[in-house]
Specification:
Two copies of one chain form a homodimer. Chain A contains six helices and 15 strands. Chain A is α+β, with helices and mostly antiparallel strands.
């Protein structure tokens, strides 16, 4: 498409103009130093029946007790053999124990505290200079989208964000039931649920699952579920099977340039740059090596 | 879940408290007079191989020339036998002529004008009293999500909104290639493309299609595409096969109450209502009769 654009406006002067700064060109030029390697202890790997893999960045700094529970459940191999049981269009994919009968391993914090937000202090996240309907300010911290208000900060419900399923207040869930957002950011859930991470790879597998036809998108028949072969922290997998992921560091010049390029698109396609960017379109890019996907 | 909540807090006083006002309770109580029947001439019906049906509300008041082209293409049965050719995760599903070789019928406006926005005058849409990153104001008009700034109004790219695929400026597309949003609202596309409608039914079919693995999410192999059996304006279908749709009128008391209930969730699940609502979560509910889906 860019080639076509050049062909259409191929005056000699245009050829000597500076190249367009686009989100893609910023990423291509980002030096290795602007990418941060994610600690593999923070990567949760889900292997699905059929060979698909989902890789999730865990958010210890926002929901440490829930994430601690998830680590214990993974270490105990508790999730293995369970299933994706719910796919509600334009909302969430949920996985866990469909029958709610599997005994939890020892050592979980149950009930977990309501880790719905945390002090904003200590999170010098770059703020996006654009308004948000739900927060006083929004930004990015540790590769994750964040809202802030009144000295408190929380992870925002964007596409691909992972939360802990729970029943009614004051139950807060344990981490045994998890969901990922697959549609319009359901921001009304912000600060009402423990958000524990971000899917870095494999969203195209979760989001493409057939929608469930029972209430809330649960599958009507057990055979419609997708089996979970295993869920592990990356370091508990054989070395050759471990994913290695990097995220564009939000304090880097490349990230700032990427945000600028996304908010003010110069790509030939765009006739009117938005001049703004919302938090769910500002989630830092990631790149991977090793077995990061199917 | 509500039953559980009542059981937990079942003091006699609680039983006599006024019932919670929730989005669901508002819809259940909405009188028929608050629902507007959509003119069936404005419904575009896509029947897919396998029996799935997608119903789209066309937006004549925003992109009349493009919508006129789409009506002519449907009347000429031009789309029949074509395919869904592209599914890019967290972005769009696109359908049309994968090979770009099928001759267009006579009578199209080609190129179409750049119907990217229109005068805001004459669109007294209820404004949402919450900030938006991309528009001076946002609201709803004719069942559709709208942004406004400087006296101009445009349809916003929300989940399920339908636009006209195009190449580079100044090409504006004809309506032969259409897409629907299946992820995070790509609001940077607002005012850069002709938005022609909203999927009212069948999003769960489009959004669950396997993602394409070639560039931009196009399918690498023709056999991965989903065939389009036919696309028709509803009134061109046999009477027994026609969908009938209604939308909650945005000027009704029920719509205002629904927005209030969505922005300030009283449902037992919520511990902290958001106190806000974004335009993509404010799209008016629809209901249907006749063959509206699978």
């Amino acid at each position: 498409m860019l080639a076509l654009g050049v062909a259409c406006g191929a005056a000699p002067a245009a050829l000597s103009a500076p190249p367009l700064v686009t989100p893609a060109s910023v990423l291509a030029a980002a030096p290795d130093a602007d990418w941060t390697t994610i600690d593999p202890h923070d990567l949760l790997v889900i292997d699905l029946a059929g060979g698909g893999r989902v890789v999730i960045l865990l958010a210890d700094s926002f929901a440490p007790v829930h994430v601690g529970n998830i680590r214990k459940l993974a270490a105990a191999h508790w999730y293995d053999g369970l299933a994706i049981e719910r796919v509600q269009d334009n909302y969430v994919v949920q996985w866990g124990d469909p029958d709610g009968k599997k005994a939890l391993p020892a050592g979980l914090t149950n009930p977990a505290p309501a880790e719905y937000d945390r002090p904003a202090e200590g999170l010098p996240f770059p703020l996006l200079p654009y308004p948000d309907p739900y927060a006083k300010a929004v930004g990015v911290s540790g590769g994750l989208p964040v809202g802030e208000d009144g000295g408190r900060a929380w992870l925002t419900h964007c596409y691909g964000m992972v939360g802990v399923g729970r029943d009614l207040n004051p139950d807060t869930g344990t981490g045994a039931e998890l969901y990922a957002v697959i549609g319009t950011p359901p921001r009304a859930l912000d600060r009402n649920i423990a958000v524990v991470g971000r899917v870095l790879r494999g969203m195209e597998l979760l989001a493409a699952l057939p929608r469930g036809t029972a209430d809330l998108g649960f599958y009507a028949k057990p055979e419609q579920r997708t089996e979970i072969i295993r869920i592990r922290i990356a370091t508990d997998l054989p070395a050759a099977d471990q994913p290695h992921m990097q995220v564009l560091r939000e304090t880097s010049a490349s990230f700032r340039a990427w945000i600028q390029a996304k908010a003010n698109r110069q790509d030939t396609f765009f006739v009117r740059p938005a001049g703004a960017l919302d938090v769910c379109n500002a989630m830092p890019p990631v790149r991977g090596a090793g077995r990061v996907g199917m």
